[in-house]
Amino acid sequence: MAKVLCVLYPDPVTGYPPVYARDSIPAVGPYPDGQTQPTPSAVDFTPGQLLGCVSGELGLREYLESQGHELVVTSDKDGPDSEFERELVDADVVISQPFWPAYLDADRIAKAKSLTLALTAGIGSDHVDLDAAIKRNITVAEVTYCNSISVAEHAVMQVLALVRNYLPSHEWVVNGGWNIADCVERAYDLEGFDVGVIAAGRIGQAVLRRLAPFDVNLHYFDTRRLPEELEKELNLTYHPDVQSLVSSVDIVDIHAPLHPKTYHLFDKNLLNSMRRGSYIVNTARAEIAVRDDIVEALRTGQLAGYAGDVWFPQPPAPDHPWRTMPHEAMTPHVSGTTLSAQARYAAGTREILEDFFAEKPIRDEYLIVEGGKLAGTGARSYTTDDKASPGAK
Ligand code: NDP
User: Fold this and answer.
1) How many CA atoms lie within 13 A of 120 on its CB side?
2) 86 CA to centre of ligand 1 in angstroms
3) Who contacts 268 (Cβ-Cβ below 8 Å, separation ≥6)?
4) Is the pLDDT of residue 391 over 60?
5) Residue pLDDT, tens place only, 22-52
6) Cα gap 147→38, rounded to integer Å
7) Does pLDDT of 171 surpass 60?
8) Residue 121: HSE in the Cβ half-sphere, 13 Å Cα cutoff
9) Which end of the chain is less congested by CB atoms within 10 angstroms, N or C?
10) Looking at ligand 1, which residue's alpha carbon is closest to its atom 48?
11) Which CATH number is 148-330's, of 3.40.50.620, 3.40.50.800, 3.90.78.10, 3.40.50.720?
């Protein structure tokens, strides 16, 4: 029987369960590319419940214990004295969420002698050292597509929030003001802007589709070009590299995975090649940008705004400069963990566990590493130190 170690974010400070704003969530069909929603044999929760925090337990306890497995859930994940590190030594399975990542670096993987499955309840497994997982033959899997639309909606919201200067305007009313001129001195219409998406995968394509009705000029860069019909349908301009894209647009929206080819892609040089007063929205991974170069570009006015929900590390220190830099519209890492998304990734996590314990194949689209190599989605989207891809940089 297996020991499953699950790292989840802390409960709400107001207690668990919360008072829900709504009684249900809408049922949605297959994902846009036809991939089916998660198909576990059953779930022990009501969709719309808060599942991603410690007391939510991803709705897994009843199922795992009924199968004789042990479930340990904690939010104490950082440092050698953390509960995570103590429990890791004999864990067979680690489940973690990108919103509250349990970093599985090479040292921790070396300590986790029994570990055979690192499961991301969400999307993005860069908190796992994939090279180390490959060497140790640990399977790495994630719930592909579970929150892609959730993130796309958040990115569109943050594009609008920045361009229309929403958050500063909101602050004026909260603080008793009615300062129209102060609100609008940095407010623009989105219509007519050049908007560039980096990485037109599941999230990037969903963003392009959602932005098209705003009558903007859409651009994109991806290592693989989209089908011609889609480029025509959305009137997309393709750029062969990141440099070409960023110098041609007013707003850059980043949806690439973090791997050696995208790490610190947005540095001072690239930022300075952008149009003055550009905006960046990054809901992909924080380390795609150089932290202090973003702050500097906002201070000088090279960037007009920066938003996103991804930070490094997570949670960031109270004095992390992105908390207080000018013209930011940051949120914590929440875009992919709406109650709607949680229902999907909790179900997908259970589907993966059921297949793993039954020694059945895990869906190819959920796989990042298997059998000592990148596999499934991992083989298409990730690179390791040993495998270079035709990336941008
Ligand atoms: P997909 O795998 O569907 O898309 C990723 C795309 O990135 C692919 O088209 C891939 O191209 C492309 N790509 C890979 N490397 C590069 C590169 N160097 N330059 C440009 N494009 C590149 O992933 P998703 O759209 O589902 O997710 C994207 C990322 O978003 C995740 O990796 C994760 O980091 C982040 N994410 C954030 C969430 C949040 O809550 N904020 C939640 C979910 C995801 P190709 O296929 O040719 O390799």
Assistant:
1) 30
2) 32
3) 290, 293, 296, 297
4) no
5) 999 999 989 999 999 999 999 999 999 999 9
6) 12
7) yes
8) 34
9) N
10) 381
11) 3.40.50.720
